[in-house]
């Protein structure tokens, strides 16, 4: 039966989602049941509005931590207002996401580069872990940035409760061990059930082991959160953009991964709209911010899911959990919940990815493409340290800002290759030092578009490459698909400067807009000569590629 794989996958995902939703709600600083409230509408609405057949949407660690960081200074010590603003943030994120999807702004994910996202996620995971360690040890949590919290843990080790520590570490070993050796077994659910059983049998809550406590049974009442004014929603729109960016980037990555494996396409704009609808639905039922989950999507895919029916099955099972099983989770030790959180996010501390970026940087340092490697590594580390020192959203903005600055710098310093012939090809002599250049000929290739930001650099570099014996300079324009007015004017000035040195300047293999811009900058018969190939430009009897007005 076609629906059977989706039902099996839904059961498997439910076993993972329930304990993790409870745990992620605690990261957001709200009661654990809020995570279950958020899961139901987000799964249903994404199934209706999203484009992925496999993506599982629900509470996640990164956006939960970001939510906590944003709401804490706004709510101060008022627990009721904290919960209301957390729900309002989900609504604001939903509105922003749906509008962005309707306006076809799916390209915004490109502004968070993979290195920046990686550094941000690593930093966020470390902050989440250090925030859960006090619950794992049964000690008081210290406020502050990552380092202040870490110092609080170190100074409080002597106050650790041995029962809490034993339960927490045992739960952590169980979850990580099953994930490592029996990945299809829901380790988080087993750890939760084991912790509940221990508390019930040994009466551990009476012996100092903290438990979750009362969880409201039943379904939430739909509606807007109480006590949140229009002004509050307007104030949350800016932070909602940051939450949406992180959630969209993570969810879109997961959706694309499984779409590629199954041979279909995902629409970034529908993904934005679907994520917005999921958050809006979550907010209307007293939930929290949600986004696509890579880990639960992986569970869904590996369990054989074929469509979003699996997500609907998870939603139905979560409703049953809210109606009949919440009492079971009241005896859950907070140390076990902390262990589930740590086990879920520890795999996000991808030091190997940073090591790869550093290795590429080291290998390319001083090389012809070193700027790109340096930019990626610096951006990742900036986002990581920004999160550790300045909190989540500032860390993300620092990473994005530095990435943009480095992108502009990289664009302003493109690699300019001096070329030499190798059969019918013209190759970079820096990569092929065995090739011989003619002393009277300089063939160059700018490995970038030509813009106002790099025009002066290109001119200076070409002039530096010329020698007293150079009589012809040919620009191979095939790797420069675009050019602006400033760069076109620069090429004209370069031609005139070289002419005064009795050096001819020609362009080969220009495409489309490049030649159009050259003609617009200097119309008429005296414009820079353009040839179809480098060989034609180099040949003494070479004929220009096309007359004015004709384009390849």
End-to-end separation in angstroms reads 56 Å
The strand order across the widest sheet is: 4-3-5-6-7-8
Bulk shape:
elongated
Q: β content, as a range?
A: 5-15%
How many separate helices? 21
- Which secondary-structure class do the elements indicate? alpha/beta
Helix content class: 55-70%
Tell me the major beta sheet.
6 strands, mixed
Number of strands: 8
The SSE order reads HHEHHHHHHHHEHHHHHHHEEEHEHEHEH
Arithmetic mean pLDDT: 86
Rg, Å, rounded: 29 Å
What this model shows, in words?
The protein is of the alpha/beta class and 552 residues long. Helices cover 62% and strands 6% of the residues. The chain is built from 21 helices and eight strands. It has helices spanning 4-27, 33-49, 61-75, 79-102, 114-137, 146-156, 162-181, 187-202, 230-262, 268-284, 294-302, 309-324, 326-329, 334-346, 351-364, 370-390, 392-412, 455-465, 485-500, 513-521, 534-538, and strands at residues 56-58, 291-293, 416-422, 425-428, 441-446, 472-476, 504-508, 530-531. The strands form two sheets. It has a six-stranded mixed β-sheet. The protein has a two-stranded antiparallel ribbon with strand order 1-2. α1 (4-27) packs across α8 (187-202) and α4 runs antiparallel to α10 (268-284). The longest helix is centred in the middle third of the chain and has 33 residues, at 230-262. It starts with a helix and ends in a 14-residue tail after the last helix. 48% of the residues are buried. The model is unreliable at 540-552 (pLDDT under 50).
């Amino acid at each position: 039966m076609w629906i059977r794989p989706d039902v099996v996958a839904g059961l498997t995902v439910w076993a993972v989602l329930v304990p993790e939703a409870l745990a992620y709600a605690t990261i957001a600083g709200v009661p654990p049941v809020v995570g279950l409230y958020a899961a139901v509408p987000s799964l249903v609405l994404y199934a209706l509005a999203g484009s992925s057949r496999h993506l599982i949407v629900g509470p996640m660690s990164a956006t939960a931590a970001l939510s906590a960081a944003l709401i804490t200074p706004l709510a101060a010590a008022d627990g009721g207002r904290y919960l209301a603003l957390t729900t309002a943030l989900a609504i604001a994120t939903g509105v922003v996401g749906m509008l962005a999807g309707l306006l076809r702004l799916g390209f915004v994910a490109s502004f968070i580069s993979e290195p920046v996202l990686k550094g941000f996620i690593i930093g966020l995971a470390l902050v989440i872990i250090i925030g859960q360690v006090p619950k794992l040890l049964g000690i008081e949590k210290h406020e502050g940035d990552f380092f202040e919290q870490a110092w609080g843990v170190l100074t409080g080790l002597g106050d650790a409760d041995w029962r809490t520590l034993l339960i927490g570490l045992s739960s952590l070993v169980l979850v990580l061990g099953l994930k490592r050796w029996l990945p299809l077994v829901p380790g988080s659910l087993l750890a939760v059930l084991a912790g509940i059983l221990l508390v019930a049998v040994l009466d551990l809550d009476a012996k100092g082991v903290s438990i979750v406590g009362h969880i409201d049974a039943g379904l939430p009442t739909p509606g807007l959160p109480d006590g949140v004014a229009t002004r509050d929603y307007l104030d949350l729109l800016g932070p909602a953009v940051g939450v949406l960016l992180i959630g969209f980037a993570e969810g879109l990555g997961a959706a694309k991964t499984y779409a590629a494996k199954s041979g279909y396409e995902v629409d970034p704009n529908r993904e934005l709209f679907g994520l917005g609808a999921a958050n809006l639905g979550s907010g209307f039922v007293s939930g929290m911010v949600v986004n696509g989950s890579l880990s639960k999507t992986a569970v869904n895919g590996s369990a054989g899911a074929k469509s979003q029916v699996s997500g609907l099955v998870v939603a139905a099972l979560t409703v049953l959990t809210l109606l009949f099983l919440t009492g079971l989770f009241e005896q859950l030790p907070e140390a076990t919940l902390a262990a589930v959180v740590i086990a879920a996010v520890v795999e996000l501390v991808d030091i190997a990815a940073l090591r790869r970026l550093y290795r590429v940087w080291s290998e390319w340092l001083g090389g012809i493409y070193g700027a790109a490697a340096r930019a990626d590594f610096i951006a990742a580390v900036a986002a990581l340290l920004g999160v550790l020192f300045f909190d989540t959203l500032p860390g993300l903005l620092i990473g994005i800002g530095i990435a943009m600055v480095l992108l502009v710098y990289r664009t302003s310093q493109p690699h300019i290759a001096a070329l030499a012939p190798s059969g019918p090809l013209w190759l970079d002599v820096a990569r092929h030092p065995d090739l011989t250049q003619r002393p009277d000929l300089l063939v160059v290739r700018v490995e970038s578009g030509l813009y106002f930001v790099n025009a002066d650099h290109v001119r200076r570099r070409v002039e530096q490459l010329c020698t007293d014996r150079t009589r012809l300079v040919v620009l191979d324009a095939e790797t420069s698909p675009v050019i602006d007015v400033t760069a076109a004017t620069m090429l004209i000035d370069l031609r005139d400067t070289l002419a005064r040195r009795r050096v001819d300047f020609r362009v080969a293999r220009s495409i489309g807009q490049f030649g159009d811009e050259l003609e617009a900058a200097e119309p008429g018969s005296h414009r820079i000569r353009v040839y179809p190939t480098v060989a034609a430009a180099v040949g003494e009897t070479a004929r220009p590629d096309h007359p004015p007005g004709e384009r390849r």
